[in-house]
Structure formats: C-alpha cells, structure tokens
C-alpha cells in the first residue's frame, strides 16, 4: 500500500524556514550591532585622541601667549630704557650749553642791574630783575641782543620804584622775554 503522509509537512517546512530566517536575521542584527558598536568605539577613540591633542595645543597656545606678553613687556621696557639713555646722552651733550647760557647771562649783565627771577619754557627765557636806571636797562638789552646765545630780547615790562631803599632816586623793575638760540637742544633734552 501506498503511504499517505497526513502530517502538515509544508507547515513544518515553512516553520523551519521561518526559524532559519529569524535566526539569520537575529544573527545579522547582532553582527550589525557589534559592528556599529566597534565603529562607534573606534570613532569615539579618535575623537578623544583629537580632543586631547586640541587641549594640548590650547595649553601650548596659552603658554605662547604668556610668553608673547612677556616679550612685548620686555620690548616696552627696552624701548623705555633706550629712551632714557637717549635723554641722558642728550642732557650730557646739553649740560655745557646750560652752563654757557648762565655764563652769558652774567657777562651781559651791566653793573647796577641784577636778576630776581629766571624761568625757561622750551626755548623761551623770561628774566625779571631790577636796574638802577633806564640807561642800565638799555645797556642790558643791547648786550643781550648782541649775544650769540640769545635773540629777540623784548622788554615786556618796566616800572619805576621811588625810594626803594637804594641811594639812587628811582629803581626800575623790569621783565624781559628772549629766545635762546641754543633753545632747540635744551627743549629736546628737557622732554
């Protein structure tokens, strides 16, 4: 007799194929998840490595910035010292000129005239003093004008004082403004 198989073999075959497919699918998902995890770990490791490099570079940049500010501070100090040295050397060169100006003021001063105040602003010199007479004051102005160290002597004020305690009848207080020929060097040295 012929055997008839009444078992649902097609359903079993379908179930076996379905189980095989599901197990293959689960295996594929597990492998894919594993690959994704490995790739993620690799990428994260590279990101961490790059972050550590960036932090190192930032720390080095900060150190270089500090060094740059130190260098610029040192450069400023160097320039300040150089400027001071220039001023000192200018003053050393001008010092004999200042002495010469005071010497010239004494040489041009006639007898019977004296200074009470002397001020200098740049190349401008202001003299305040007392003269026994107008003729002495005129003589002083002529001597100042003829000097090689002074120019443009200008009598800005002359006042007669009566009975100032000197034997002469009147004493003349005066104020003279004049320019120093040597004034440019003095002004540069004073700055």
TrEMBL record:
Keyword list, A-Z: Membrane, Transmembrane, Transmembrane helix
Keyword Oxidoreductase attached: no
InterPro entries (alphabetical): Extracell_DNA_Util/SecSys_Comp, PilN
Chain segments annotated as transmembrane: 21-40
GO biological process, one term: type IV pilus assembly
Keyword Transmembrane helix (UniProt): yes
Protein name: Pilus assembly protein PilN
Organism expressing this protein natively: SAR86 cluster bacterium
